[in-house]
Write a structure and sequence with these properties.
Strand order of the largest sheet: 1-2-3-4-5-6-7-8-10-11-12-13-14-15-16-17
Mean pLDDT: 91
Number of strands: 17
Oligomer: single chain
Structural class: alpha+beta
Radius of gyration: 21 Å
Order of helices and strands: HHHHEEEHEEHEEEEEEEEEEEE
CATH architecture: Beta Barrel
Low-confidence stretches: 1-25
Number of helices: 6
Largest sheet: 16 strands, antiparallel, barrel
CATH superfamily: Carbohydrate-selective porin OprB
Strand content: 35-45%
CATH topology: Porin
Number of domains: 1
Distance between the termini: 41 Å
């Protein structure tokens, strides 16, 4: 069996694993698990809603909040020996109860192997330090929280995972984030709530892409890896830097989020000195978040954005605007579906239109912390010199221990946009994450 056949069979096996497991579970076991999945769904809500119902699970405060919820592991369902991570988590929890300071740590490694165009491969790791200190109104809906996060990225060999896509000539990178950027301070912002938590305001150093335009399974650390699916590549989000955001949540059914960020924000810089150039990125998102009886939560949203022309600080970019539509719905405690369409009107990104849909199924192999995902994406380039690119990705995530996840995934890139000599690439990846 050659490599291409092996890659294809591996991808099919990953796809069929959840289905075969579901068929293997007898009815009595499914009934026994029902209450467990209901409890897990309540402790791990569908919507990340610390600032806005439209934000993603990679936003600084939401990622930290999720670390507090217990995971159901395969190897140590009872924490008899918590180990160093369990000891540290206990100390962090005690610190939070005493002072309102919540701490978290996460380390993630990704290896990516491609078949085609000299079979490039790459690997990298990412270390995150997270903190959220409730200094005002602790224990009340109108709290004030200082959020600070830092990150270190580096390679684990000759090439990073983020270097594989450019070697293949893809229109959109086959991996998001896993490069060798080194140390950065990602977030340093204040989150304040008013009016019984209905009105939320952030100001400081933040990344607008964490809060608007996201599909429900957008998290490169635990979900899809290809940048088609782990980012919104139609939007020229500036990066971490000076940002102001406002979100209003009048009820559990609706939300409205808007913000403005320095158009010259670059995550490796402070961005303060370039504010005076007065070129900004503006965004607004409105969403409906119904809770459908017998199914679960959903989010249906429209996001519009505009960025000013940028001619300072080494930039030569015209103004641009666009729109993103997202629809996501839980069909049960275990099954969710979603779709996203995004359009950019100008020339600030290399993508004109993006359309995609996906499905997520939790509980494969018994644990509600396990997740299976399948998605397909279509990208139309801005330039006529590139081709329409299509991507299919599937992954299986396993909660090995209380703090450790292992994921395996498979990608097929059809008609790589910037490589007219190839019709298709297949890629395998493995991801290991330890977080507490």
């Amino acid at each position: 069996m050659n490599r291409k056949q092996w890659l294809a069979l591996t991808g099919v096996a990953i796809c069929l694993g959840p289905v075969l497991q579901a068929e293997a579970d007898p009815p009595t076991q499914a009934a026994t698990q029902k209450s467990e999945f209901e409890a897990y769904s309540k402790s791990h809500p569908y919507l990340n809603d610390e600032f806005s119902a439209g934000e993603g699970s990679e936003s600084g405060i939401d990622e930290l909040e999720r670390l507090q919820e217990p995971e159901t592991s395969l190897l140590d369902p009872v924490d008899v020996h918590p180990g160093p991570s369990g000891w540290a988590r206990g100390k962090f929890d005690s610190l939070y109860r005493g002072t309102g300071l919540r701490l978290g740590f996460a380390g993630t490694a990704l290896g990516l192997w491609a078949n085609g165009a000299d079979d490039p491969n790459g690997s990298a790791y990412d270390i995150d330090f997270m903190s959220a200190w409730t200094l005002v109104g602790r224990g009340t809906p109108d709290s004030g929280v200082l959020v600070v996060t830092a990150e270190f990225r580096d390679d684990m060999g000759s090439d990073t995972a983020a270097a594989v896509g450019p070697q293949l000539g893809t229109l959109i990178n086959t991996a998001n984030a896993f490069n060798d950027r080194g140390w950065v301070v990602r977030d340093a912002y204040w989150l304040q709530r008013f009016d019984d938590g209905k009105l939320r305001v952030i100001f400081g150093r933040a990344d607008t892409s964490d809060f608007v335009g996201q599909q429900p399974m957008q998290n490169v650390n635990s979900m899809f890896v290809n940048r088609h699916l782990s980012a919104n590549p139609t939007v020229p989000f500036p990066g971490h830097g000076p940002t102001i955001g406002v979100s209003y949540r009048p009820s559990d059914q609706y939300y409205l989020t808007g913000g403005v960020a320095n158009g010259y924000n670059v995550t490796t810089e402070t961005g303060i000195s370039s504010i005076s150039d007065s070129d900004f990125f503006y965004s607004a998102e409105a969403g409906w978040t119904p809770q459908i009886e017998g199914m679960g939560a959903g989010r249906y949203s429209v996001m519009v954005w505009h960025i000013d022309a940028r001619t300072e600080n080494g930039f030569a970019s015209p103004s641009d605007d666009g729109v993103t539509l997202v629809a996501g719905q839980q069909l049960s405690n275990r099954l969710q579906v979603w779709g996203r369409y995004a359009h950019a009107g100008g020339e600030t990104t290399n993508i004109r239109n993006l359309a995609q849909a996906g499905i997520g199924y939790s509980g494969t192999f018994g644990s509600p912390s396990n997740m299976s995902g399948l998605a397909a994406s279509f990208a139309e380039p801005r330039s006529s010199a590139s081709r329409d690119e299509k991507v299919v990705e599937v992954f299986q995530r396993i909660q090995l221990g209380r703090f450790t996840q292992l994921s395996a995934g498979f990608q097929v890139v059809i008609d790589p946009g910037n490589n007219p000599d190839e019709s298709r690439f297949e890629l395998l990846y493995a991801r290991l994450r330890h977080a507490f």
